[in-house]
Amino acid sequence: MTERIEGHGGELALAALRAHGVREMFTLSGGHVFPLYDAAYKTDFPIYDVRHEQSAVFAAEAVAKLQRRPGLAVLTAGPGVTNGISGMTSAFFNASPVLVLGGRAPAFRWGSGSLQEMDHLPLVSPVTKHAETVFSTDDIPRAVGAALNAALTPHRGPAFLDFPLETVFSVAEADLPTVTGVDPIAPDPEEVGRAAMLIAGAQRPVIIAGSDVYAGDAVAALREAAEALQVPVFTNGMGRGSLPPEHPLAFAKARRAALSGADVVVVVGTPLDFRLSFGDFGDAKVVHIVDAPSQRATHVQPAVAPAGDLRLILSALADHSGDRADHSDWIADLRVAEDAAKARDAAEMAAETDPIRPARIYGELRRALAPDAITIGDGGDFVSYAGRYLEPAQPGTWLDPGPYGCLGTGMGYAMGARVSHPDRQICVLMGDGAAGFSLMDVESLVRQKLPVVIVVGNNGIWGLEKHPMRAMYGYDVAADLQPELRYDTVVSALGGAGETVAKAADLGPALQRAFDSGVPYLVNVLTDPTDAYPRSSNLA
């Protein structure tokens, strides 16, 4: 039975949001959206506010990614919305179901030069799945429901609504739409069957599982498929931890050997982008498994590309009853390469060098982090080391900026992670360059009693730019930061705490103090500026 509700625009919006499982709001205060605050205040709906709108959107995205439900950011008109566009774009690339509600100058005097008067839709439409201006107060519940359904429909992503001033402040009656949920996309059985035959018959197959495996709640199905077909598994993004590190089919270090030797590469729930050589794996055939037809690659031609609910596809692979090749020798060869790489990494993570090498930081973090800790990467060069040395033990414990590569996610992601998991360790891994984007929002964490640990790899440079530019031109410009800058003092001034670490032997005790502190605590680690993470260019 349809429920009839009455109230101002903020109350109508909040009723629809609650019905869809939204449980908190991230915002930066603005008069255009006061009715949304009023509705939240009157009903004890949690509000978390920030110092820059991008942090509000990133916090909402962290909730969406970790909890696999909509995250909500509320932004005031004009610059409030434009400040949030990088966050919306990251959510678009990461397929995160974020809803951004924006204020808007009054429609009745549009074109007269009202404060922050701007048509947001042409800016946000390219990076959202749904963008709409709601001109009628009684239409707000319908619009909120439609936007959230769009955000949650695979391939997931952000949605945007804005409300003219008179729309959100006015009172009306409206029907609260029934929440029906999103129907799964059924894959083509023939395509799934061809994929199963190709994988089962391969001599040297490899699975690479990405973020959509977690977002689509397909972790268990992935494990079933890998175990049934006996295929080694590598992961990226939020796919990390889908198989625990000790699982016999879980691999992390032998990726080069795997991709150079594989005859079939199965990419599940992640695009064939620069992180995966744009889908070029030499002579290997590619099976690209995606959660919606829109995600099929157009720049390469996979051998087969099943599209649909990842749980259905992976479960069907697990149930394949046809002939299967023996992959035991292939798995054993990769295990040899994996163990050799782990031995090399162990030596690097134990290095006693001063200045400190980034690998040593991750060696200490591996001892300090609990299995269910949420680890957040916000940086370039420094966070690249995290991808190499940290191995998440559980799914849903790794957050990074994703393929868009936007810096500044750290404090917003930390806020969303702490709200999502009040009792877990939250650790932000931040380059000193990235610290310039969002460190002021430590104040927001302090004020709202949201403790996190921030580890800054401080080498005084933009590492991803300085070293390549020197290699290309013999010089570098615009690539230096202040050496040994006291980011910990900044955090202390904002009400948190911290310390600077210059010797490798002091790292472990400093991290212990940070996790024991109960406040936002920054460990400022002075690292070797000559230590550059080895990589090929990502400029292509």
TrEMBL record:
SUPFAM superfamilies: DHS-like NAD/FAD-binding domain, Thiamin diphosphate-binding fold (THDP-binding). GO terms for cellular component: acetolactate synthase complex. Gene3D superfamilies: 3.40.50.970, TPP-binding domain (3.40.50.1220). InterPro entries: DHS-like_NAD/FAD-binding_dom, THDP-binding, Thiamin_PyroP_enz_cen_dom, Thiamin_PyroP_enz_TPP-bd_dom, TPP_enz, TPP_enzyme_TPP-bd. GO terms for molecular function: acetolactate synthase activity; flavin adenine dinucleotide binding; magnesium ion binding; thiamine pyrophosphate binding. It comes from the Bacteria. Its cofactor is thiamine diphosphate. Residues 9-121 form the Thiamine pyrophosphate enzyme N-terminal TPP-binding domain. Keywords: Thiamine pyrophosphate. Residues 194-317 form the Thiamine pyrophosphate enzyme central domain. Residues 378-525 form the Thiamine pyrophosphate enzyme TPP-binding domain. GO terms for biological process: isoleucine biosynthetic process; L-valine biosynthetic process. Belongs to the TPP enzyme family. This is Acetolactate synthase. It comes from Micromonospora noduli. The lineage of its organism: Bacteria, Bacillati, Actinomycetota, Actinomycetes, Micromonosporales.
